């Protein structure tokens, strides 16, 4: 069995600009997400989700250049600490694709490891499940974290590392 392969870890070399926040303002909403790297070297995705004017989501995204070869792996392990809210982990083979593969997960408010089976990640576009095959397991061009729970709320998700196995 191969050892885990690091997909991404926050550390002293992490650059905030490599992560991009995309909120519902792209469609007229008013959610206000932010991303920072904490003094403890964790990614911090935080802000407020607003339902005003049809809004209701915030996300943070990271592109891989070149894309990450996911073929030898079948699972992702994400060490994180949420605020007790539900989130979605999303990935794209091609960052320009109009849909993403999704895995919803709940957080406990404590540090935990979320295990995701790649083959179970299903395709979604604008919150709607598509009638397409699940993630083919070839390459990962982009990863993202999304909050969209259908309610107004503050949120915070601390991210430590993502590993493939």
TrEMBL record:
Domain of life assignment: Bacteria
Domain NADH:ubiquinone oxidoreductase intermediate-associated protein stretches: 10-159
Family label: Belongs to the CIA30 family.
Name the UniProt record assigns to this protein: Complex I intermediate-associated protein 30 (CIA30)
Organism for this UniProt entry: Neolewinella xylanilytica
